[in-house]
Amino acid sequence: MRMQTQMQMKVRQRGFTLIEMVVVIVLIGLAYALLPKLAFGGVSGPELKTNVRAVAIGLRMTRDTAINSKREATLTLDLDAHVFRVQNDARVHKLNEKIDVKLYTSQADLVSEKIGSIRFFPDGSSNGGRVTVGAGGRDFAVDIDWLTGRVTISELAGNPRG
Fold this sequence. Notes:
This protein is α+β, with helices and mostly antiparallel strands and 162 residues long. It has two domains: 2-39; 45-155, minor pseudopilin epsh domain (minor pseudopilin epsh fold). It contains three helices and eight strands, in the order H-H-H-E-E-E-E-E-E-E-E. A four-stranded antiparallel β-sheet has the order 3-2-1-5, with helices on one face. The longest helix has 25 residues, at 45-69. The model has no long low-confidence stretch (mean pLDDT 88).
């Protein structure tokens, strides 16, 4: 009888208690919530990609506006305020303040060091350029082909995958 009790005690000692499991789950949840902020400078991967897509969508809207209206259309980007505007659209599109945004465009379309435009023409072509959006060492490029006006997104080389 005594041997049976010792075996039952050994079986109970092998497992985890419910409290231990709950503590581990809570710690994993906290780590999951805090890790993106630590790894990407306060901007999570999905949030960064959302901002990149917003810029690309704005550029595509501008191109569509130029083609449909048969007039030049511009997307103006304010790097200090982290906003962009599409010509003839009253909305101001806000980007996350914690991301880095850079604009590469023609000299003629720069208003200042921090404000510039990407111009699209009625045939769909563009002045071309690039907008880079990044945070925490992870950068994406939104490229505008000058000949076709095609807007593409690519992750810049040397970035950690996540």
